[in-house]
């Protein structure tokens, strides 16, 4: 049986919403189970969508990661699209003028690094301040309800890590909205339109839905599973395959000895994930147009695979094999001197431990307690079994 996403459920219940003026926060992942654009279906069914809002990558999901997005007019529907990843991260009160609420419909990936969830948080705050409603159309967590990773430490919150979340938080976007509203006292007038048929043990390919490509560098489920860990490599001076056909499935750099790296990584117990040597040339991002030597990863058993542990063992191996070439990435340093790896993992201790020789196994064991505490905390916000 195919999972029925929130966009289809709200259309079934449309009578209670007709006559209200809405803004729609969405992107190209906002489709029905038949791949119909959510905006078109809402308008066809009598919803009054007056304004559009877009997250990182823009409302069409076409802009590169980290690039600021401008306000535009949607050429098909003629509606103004306010960017929430440009001059403003949070909607202004003027943007919300004349609206009775914001409808949120974006496919999440269930990982703390993903900026869409912080856009949702800002929208919830702004709508509370304006006194209007937030309606979240729920969608599957593609990585199931499994919880993994350390909690982000206070003082290390950012637009890629915040809200006391672990890295893989195991919640649907509707459940996450409930968590944000209660745990952070947002006080939004929040309504969740639940899915039909989703279960906590479902990965995206169990849903019967086609992959909606939530952002340009996550073309399928395998890449998204790998992104769980390989995103941490964006905090060091290697390519994670951006600018290739396999982002987060390739890692490499011109200075890496791929044979030694493969041999070192094979000394660890990595179940459910296989790797091989891979040479590639990114056409953009780090090491654009340079020959990179590294590895390619394959998920062979997603229930056993631990991409976070694998990524940390990769960093451990790079420090050991290439102490003169390896660097923590300074590109993303902020004014407080916090670098990108610390933002991504949410705790400065882990970088220091890796530098001192700690392995992925040791780091994963160090956060088991807080991982379990988070899992227990969020059970009260579950909408599905």
From TrEMBL:
Residues 23-221 form the Peptidoglycan beta-N-acetylmuramidase NamZ N-terminal domain. GO terms for molecular function: peptidoglycan beta-N-acetylmuramidase activity. Transmembrane segments: none annotated. InterPro entries: NamZ, NamZ_C, NamZ_N. Residues 225-384 form the Peptidoglycan beta-N-acetylmuramidase NamZ C-terminal domain. PANTHER family: HYPOTHETICAL 460 KDA PROTEIN IN FEUA-SIGW INTERGENIC REGION [PRECURSOR], PEPTIDOGLYCAN BETA-N-ACETYLMURAMIDASE NAMZ. This is DUF1343 domain-containing protein. It comes from Kosmotoga pacifica. The lineage of its organism: Bacteria, Thermotogati, Thermotogota, Thermotogae, Kosmotogales.
